[in-house]
Design goal:
CATH superfamily: MetI-like
InterPro entries: MetI-like, MetI-like_sf
Organism: Kutzneria kofuensis
Largest sheet: none
Membrane topology: Multi-pass membrane protein
GO biological process, one term: transmembrane transport
Strand content: under 5%
Distance between the termini: 30 Å
Keywords: Cell membrane, Membrane, Transmembrane, Transmembrane helix, Transport
Structural class: mainly alpha
Shape: globular
Number of strands: 0
């Protein structure tokens, strides 16, 4: 039933959008009807520039998310395990966490140029914080009885980490990665759009909108990015339900 309501809501939104465009309530050159956008969406995959841009964006997203996951989990485990270090570093973390990645584009270009590494670094920077904070917070939620039992049986620190700590914090880490997956996509596309120099969905949409005035193509590319983000989020939700369903791990980003 919830799925049906979501479908009805989406169809209703598209019908209102279609009617507004067809009745000239909005300029169809600025906001073309969804029927035109969906047709253009199907034709995107015959455009080699779009395909190359989509591949570049997806690969950059994946690399940035993997880097953010490795850095976020490692730092989260470190800060969560050493309370003094966490207390000292938290002001720095709280200062850096809300910084928008796109605001650092001039600095990144000066240091790295305009190639793919710029959008990867900025996206990884933006995506690290939810994973770091979720991991650090999760360490405080580990059942102390499990840790004490492992110590009583003289289990090594490495085996306690693998057998007790990581399974306990799994739901929180997966939630952090799921949140960061969306942040990474936004940062990658936003950097492509604003920085230029590197192919990608953002640069493709920018060129189509400014030089060609093709808003139907711009919106079709946006639909692709939105569908990709929805599929990624659904994939992480499936992982949570299948392998880490014993806890929600919901922590504010």
């Amino acid at each position: 039933m919830p799925f049906v309501r979501k479908v009805v809501g989406l169809v209703g939104f598209l019908l209102v959008w279609e009617a507004a465009s067809r009745l000239s309530l909005v300029d169809d050159r600025v906001l073309p009807p969804p029927s035109d956008v969906l047709v253009r969406f199907g034709l995107l995959f015959t455009d080699q520039r779009f395909v190359a841009g989509a591949i570049s964006t997806v690969l950059s997203w994946l690399i940035a998310l993997l880097c953010a996951t490795g850095i976020g989990v490692a730092l989260g485990l470190l800060l969560g395990s050493v309370p003094v270090l966490r207390l000292i570093s938290m002001p720095v973390v709280e200062f850096l966490r809300p910084l928008p990645a796109v605001a650092l584009i001039p600095l990144a270009i000066a240091l790295l140029g305009t190639d793919a590494q710029t959008k990867i670094v900025l996206a990884a920077f933006a995506a690290t914080w939810p994973i770091l904070l979720n991991t650090s917070y999760a360490l405080g939620e580990v059942d102390p009885r499990l840790v004490e039992t492992a110590r009583c049986f003289r289990v090594s620190r490495w085996r306690r980490l693998v057998g007790v700590t990581l399974p306990s914090i799994g739901p929180f880490v997966v939630t952090g990665v799921r949140i960061s997956a969306s942040i990474t996509l936004i940062a990658v596309v936003g950097t492509e759009f604003l920085a230029g120099g590197s192919i990608g969905l953002g640069q493709y949409a920018f060129l189509q909108g400014t030089s060609g005035g093709r808003m139907d193509v711009v919106l079709a590319a946006t639909v692709f990015a939105g569908l990709f983000g929805c599929l990624v989020n659904a994939g992480f939700l499936a992982v949570q339900r299948r392998w880490v369903s014993w806890g929600s791990g919901e922590v504010a980003a």
